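Contributing: when you submit paired examples, paste them exactly as shown. First protein:
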Amino acid sequence: MGGRQSKPQEQAPAPSLEDAVGNIGKKIEEIEEKIQKAQEEAKQYVAQQSTNATAKARAMQALKRKKALEQQRDQLVNTQYNVENMQIQQDQAEINAQTLLAMKEANEKLKQQQKQMGVEDVEKLTDEIADMQAEMKDIQTALAASSSLGAGGEEEAEDELKALYAQQAQKEAEEAMAILAGGGGVPAPVAPTPAAPAAAKAAPLAS
C-alpha cells in the first residue's frame, strides 16, 4: 500500500489590476518616507562636519541613498501609470463585451418579433383600424343627426323665444303702470283737454 497522496495546494488567485495599483501606491508612499529620512540625515551630518570627521562621508552616503530611492520611486510611478492605463483598457473592454452581448440579444429578439409580425399583418391591421375609425365616424354623425332639430323646429323655437321676451316686457310695463297709478311714484300724466270752438262771426247789419 502506498502512502497517502497529498492534495495539490490551491493556488491563490492572481491579484487584480486594481490591487496592483493599490500595492504600488503603498510602496511609493514608503519610499517617499525613506527619501525624506535620508534628506534629514544628510542635513544632520552636514551640521556635524566641524565635530565629526566622518560626517561628510556619511552625508554623501545619505544623499546617494536618497538619489537611488528617488529613481526607484520614479520607476514605480511609471509602473503605476502603466497598470492604471491597462485597468482603464480592461474596463473599457468589459463594457464593450457587455454591450456586444446586449446588442446580439436585442437583435435576436427583433428577428423573432419580425417573424411574428410580417408586412401583410401590419397592412391588414392598419386597414382594420381605418375601417373602424370610418365606422365610428358614421355612427357619431348618425347620432348627431338624430338628436338635432330640423329647420322648421328651429324656427318655431326662435318664435317661441321672441314671444317669451315680449311677454316679459309687457309684464314689466304693467307693473310699472300699477306703481304709478297707486301714487307711489310720479303722478300719472293728465290727458290734454281739447280747446273750445271759436265763436261764430256776427251777421252783417241790414242796410
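Second protein:
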Amino acid sequence: GFAMLGCWAAIVLIEITTTVVDVHSSEATLHTGAFIVCSTVLLCLAWCLAYICHGLAVVVDSFCVRMFSDPDVRRILHEWNVVTAVVHKASTGIQSGFVALQASTVLAIPALLSDFTELGVELRTVSALLPGTIVVVCVVRLLFIAGTVTDRCRRMPALVNSLSFGRGKESARQHIVEYMNNSASGFYMLEVRISSGGALILLYVWIAVTCLILTLPHARVL
C-alpha cells in the first residue's frame, strides 16, 4: 500500500514539475491533468487487485499453519478443497480487471520503448517517460504478486511430503501429495494458471519482441 502510494506521489510530483517548466502551455497542463487522473485510476485498481492477491496468499499460509498444528488426513483434504475453491473463485472474479490492466501494459511497453528510441537518452526524455514507466512497473508487479499465490500452492505437496503423520500413515501422506498435485490449485486468469516463472518469461518475451519490431526499420535502412 505504501509503495503504491509512494509511486503515485512520485508520478504527481514529476508531472507537476514538468508542467511548471511549460507553465505557458495550456496543452501541457491539460496533458498533465489527464495523465494524473488516468494513472490514479490505474494505480488504485492495481492496488485493489494486489490487496486481493495478498489475501489469497494469506489464505494458503493459514492453511499451512493449521496443517502443522493438526496433521489430520481428512481435515487436510477438506480444507485444501476449500482453499482451492476460494483461490479459484477469487481469481476468476477479478480476472476482467486483471486482464484490462495487463492489456494496458502490453500496449504501453512498446510505446515507451518507441518514445525512448526516437527521443534519445536525455534528461528531458527521462523525466517525460518516467511517470509512465512507474505505472507500467506497478501493473507488471501485480502479475508477479498473483504468481506468488500459485507458487505457494505448487510448493504445498513438497511441504506435506516432509510432514510426519505417524507410523503406518505413509500411504495416506502420499495420497494427500498426489491429490494436491492433481488439483492444480493456483491463481487463474482466463483459465490459465499464472506463476512467477511464467510471468517472468512472458515479460521477457514481450520486451524482446518489442525491441525486435522497433529495430526492424533501422535494419532495413542499413
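If you have annotations for the second protein, write them as plain sentences, like these:
The CA atoms of residues 102 and 159 lie 32 Å apart.
The radius of gyration is 23 Å.
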